[in-house]
Specification:
78% of the residues lie in helices and 0% in strands. The chain is built from 21 helices and no strands. α1 runs antiparallel to α2, α10 runs antiparallel to α11 and α18 packs antiparallel against α19. This is Anaphase-promoting complex, cyclosome, subunit 3. InterPro entries: TPR-like_helical_dom_sf, TPR_rpt.
């Protein structure tokens, strides 16, 4: 007859073997069979946790949460299962529950920067940016090399216009990891925001070497290139933006303006017209851009037509548009000084600049002299 001790030893060995078998099933991705194996002993915190992980892997999140709670009820001292539960709460949009668990974890281990960081992420998710920032700050203070936290601080500084703080944090982040895409992106945006387009360009180039790109990246990069008179490269990047955002009229207009700079008026007209077709509201910028295209080709009648359309879109007083219309009309109606005079008088009435008013008055005087001479 076997002794009681031998029976206990045999029971323990069988239990260990059963757990190892269940763990192996989980590791091999055989989650449903792993659940069956783990649930042979529901008094084990480990088994309840692994059952939860198996259900989570099967995307049965409600049962996963239930078994995590069972595991914690069995042994509330183990942080790992609480940490996994908090992350699952966040993943399933139970944000307040996630916050509650992260707070409990921080009480037990307040020096853990990951707990602080993830609590900050959760606060941000419910729109409490102030508490989120405080958590990111704590995570950064606990570990200055915690790049996710310093990235959040740098991004907030950039959005708030605290450029010195932002640049300092970006430089620190890039020192830790020169190839960190988030910080490369922030450096590009930082130079873009402060209008240092020359310095922004190499950072956008580096960013596009490491990422697939996006509409906003190509748009910003294109504008930097345009400002540095690199019109052909700007056009290329606005065309890349269109691949991601083909119904946005803005890149078509910008390409048209770039082609105008290159004196490629045929392409300029094509893209500006595409911009007009895509727009649903105001076409002011497009019409004015087309007017400039025609004006530079000395097609003054067409230019005047589009300036007039632009005026209909934005008849606001104080715009130089009326002056541009008058100057263009001067080129169109060369034999009709009375008509041109009307344009200049209208422009003068709608212009705020005293200098331009004086300049137009000289032309008005000349036109009135011409009219008198014709009458005589």
């Amino acid at each position: 007859m076997k002794s009681f001790g031998s029976i206990i030893c045999l029971f323990l060995v069988c239990g260990v073997y059963a757990q190892e078998k269940a763990d192996q099933l989980f590791q091999l991705g055989n989650y449903s069979k792993a659940i069956v194996a783990y649930q042979k002993d529901t008094t084990s915190a480990h088994n309840q946790r692994m059952t939860a992980k198996s259900y989570a892997a099967l995307e049965n999140y409600e049962l996963a949460i239930s078994h995590y709670l069972n595991a914690i009820a069995i042994d509330s001292t183990l942080q790992l299962q609480q940490f996994e539960l908090a992350k699952l709460y966040y993943q399933t949009n139970h944000i307040e529950d996630a916050i509650s668990v992260y707070k409990k974890l921080i009480k037990k281990d307040e020096d853990n920067p990951t707990f602080q960081y993830l609590l900050g992420v959760a606060y941000n998710a419910i729109g409490n940016g102030k508490k989120g920032y405080e958590c990111f700050q704590k995570a950064y203070e606990l570990d200055p090399n915690y790049l996710k936290a310093s990235y959040q601080l740098a991004k907030t500084a950039l959005l708030n216009g605290s450029y010195d703080t932002c640049l300092s944090l970006i430089n620190e982040g890039l020192k830790v990891n020169p190839n960190n895409v988030d910080f490369i992106n922030l450096m590009a945006i930082y130079h873009y925001d402060v209008q240092n387009y020359k310095k922004a360009i190499p950072w956008f180039e580096k960013l596009l070497e490491k990422t697939q790109g996006s509409a906003i990246i190509y748009r910003r990069f294109a504008l930097c290139l345009f400002q540095r008179n690199e019109y052909e490269r700007a056009i290329e990047n606005w065309k890349n933006q269109i691949l991601y955002d083909k119904y946005n009229p803005d890149p078509y207009l910008q390409i048209g303006l770039a082609y105008t700079k290159l004196k490629n008026y045929t392409e300029a007209e094509t893209y500006i017209n595409q911009s007009i077709e895509l727009k649903q509201n105001s076409f002011y910028d497009d019409y004015e851009a087309l007017a400039v295209v025609y004006q530079q080709q000395q097609s003054f009648k067409k230019a005047l037509h589009y300036y007039e359309l632009a005026k209909e879109e934005n008849p606001s007083k104080g715009s130089m548009l009326y002056y541009k219309i008058a100057v263009t009309a001067d080129k169109v109606y060369t034999s009709n000084p009375k008509k041109v005079l009307e344009y200049y008088k209208t422009a003068q009435e709608n212009e705020d600049s005293e200098y331009l008013k004086m300049y137009m008055q000289k032309r008005i005087d000349e036109l009135e002299s011409e009219i008198l001479a014709q009458a005589g």
